[in-house]
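Key idea: predict the complex, not the pieces.
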Amino acid sequence: MASAVKLDHAVSGHHHDHDHGHHKETFITKYIFSQDHKMIAKQFLITGIIMAVIAMILSVLFRLQLGWPDKSFPILETFLGKWAEGGRIKPDFFLALVTIHGTMMVFFVLTAGLSGTFSNLLIPLQIGARDMASPFLNMLSYWLFFLACAIMLGSFFTQTGPASAGWTVYPPLSALPKAIPGSGIGMTLWLISMTSFVASALIGGLNYISTILNMRTRGMDLWKMPLTIWALFLTAILGVLTFPVLVAAVVLLIFDRSFGTSFYLSEIVVAGQTLPNQGGSPILWQHLFWFLGHPEVYIVIMPALGITSEVIAVNSRKPIFGYHAMVYSLIGITVLSFIVWGHHMFVTGMNPFLGGVFMITTLIIAVPSAVKTFNYLATLWRGNIRFTPAMLFAIGLVSFFISGGLTGIFLGNSVLDINLHDTYFVVAHFHLVMGSAAIFGMLCGVYHWFPKLFGRMMDEKLAYLHFWLTFAGAYLVFFPMHFMGLDGVPRRYYAFTEFEFMKEWLTVNEFVSWAAIVAALAQVAFLYNFFHSIFYGKKATPNPWHANTLEWTTPVEHLHGNWPGEIPAVYRWPYDYSKPGHEEDFIQQTTPFSQTMSSNLLHDFEGNMEAERIQLDWEAKHKHEMSTRV
Amino acid sequence: MKRVIEGDVQSLRARKFLMWLFVISSFMFFAALTSGFIVYTGGSAERGIKIVLPQIFKFSTGAIILSSITMYRAYWAAKRLDFTQEKRYLVFTILLGILFFAFQLLAWHTLIEEGVYFVNYNASQSFIYVFTGAHLLHIILGIFFLTYTLLGCIKNIPHNHNLFRLEVTSIFWHFIDILWIYLYVFLLLGQ
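Result:
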């Protein structure tokens, strides 16, 4: 009896839950504490863009110092006060700039801004779900990220300045508050901010994986998912497996800093005084950090690769070349990324045999990466290419991925690394292969899905201007750095005037700084275009790029629950572009084979004999029509 | 109506899956800590636990294994729609969780009496506190989940939601039970 009553209650309970979605929304529930994945995607994107602008301004500041080390810029003192006394940036603040630029770009822009935006926007829309597995946790994920950003920015307003130990925050520099000013309260805030960020990334990642595995619409099996979803899925798996390791490392670092333990510290003398800490191992930090740190660079690049795969296929009007190979290469990168972290530590006194093992695993990553590159080129090959802004950025990504990837083969070599370690060669390598490439992937996604995000189009002319200036700028900034690195110029140095052998690079540095300033100014074109188009852009049609994936079957005006009626079912893979025999050059995933008899191929039916028989019957009947059309 | 229920079932299944994923990420956290211990301890002969672990860990191990059994009984009581038993066993599980917590604190007390402090030049010994402390945070979270489930049961929430909470809680509770056994065996092997 009791159970009958309970079941009855259960039914009415569901009813209530369902009605909940139609309640009137207030400003706060719609724009601030929103649980709708599309709004959360916009929040991630705009926060990410703001962080990117701030991190870019930081880079221009340290470029000013590197390009004109002896020159005074009085305006800097106006803005930065005692950090730029006499208009010259202080060495301590220079280190803080480098550190926070790296942290913000890697974590806030290219992890949260990229994965956060596109996972939230595309996962439910492209797999056919009404929202995420847990919309509440999704909201929490954004607000933890926001908190992390606020705390990190807050560290600029402290007496001793933000963390300055580099984005990898190696102890003992980061563990001893007295080591440099930035290792005081700034470092503490860095650690708190990163803890909040990791919580955000984890909660987000759990949600993405669960949504993809459990909430796909009818017909959407794993091999019918767009490559964006595959990339975001594997990225989330990487995050869930590696971010906890960073937490473990950070916890131990906090104990060393604030409780006096000696996990990482040993036999240190600061200003003539021997510290009490004994017996710690600074290498332990590097192991733990890079176990996250290396997969992290794939967390950064894989969503960009997924976005590019989709955009290149759509705008070449061709199926992506080697869909299965694209998926397996992503899986290969995911698996390999766990066993290569030692290549960051070749010069820590690592056993040469172990170094050899890490070298081999590192070089093997070139294989799946090359598979992806060649597949992009093969997709472009003889395609009916439309150079939309998104397409240009996608091709830009391929370019950076190649030119930055090639230098990875040199750096992954444990012998060459002795020479190249911590030089500008490394800076050039990772800024091309994961910095520029990933940011191009992100911009590509913004231009491509802007109509889906805001229901309006971005201005194309400004976009072309933005692309060419940024593309040329990025190469002009990072390419010369290879040569500096080969000459042995170390990264993170404050001024090149103090060392005889570096002096010849001063002119190159000035050139790089000019290129950086121009590239930074080019972003104004993007920012204006982005924010102006949100309000005044041309109204978008439901499917402006004639794409196949599910998100373009939703109405332009956002609805809670995405589709007004039933969620559409999926019948085919997402890459039926320019299929011979079909009147249009794209067939959406929601179009059943029964409506495209003239273009069906026998392998479309995956061994379904009945369907093959129907198709052959139809073809026999329509032989005449088919032959005249050909 | 049917569609609504299907949607609800899908969302509950997806949310239950979230707990499995959380268990995996939490396991990675402890895997990182224990790997850190191995890397650290392997670095020099002066490092290592070098003490006999407090006997009280055996009692706490007993308490947490017992709590897994009561958790299991609570789940089966709910499956049989026997809500009185469900509540009773949930209360037992919570009490055993609190007992485990107390035993761990006592173990810390014993360690301190032996002169094995958290702030220690031999960080292998500090790691004992890190392992048990991080695990205790999970116990607090587990007790929170248990209480939440118990409250739902008392408030007579719909049965499928009650069962959902119970399943999620028991995945987590059994996980932290196994996790403790892993940590304890790990420490015993290192001692």
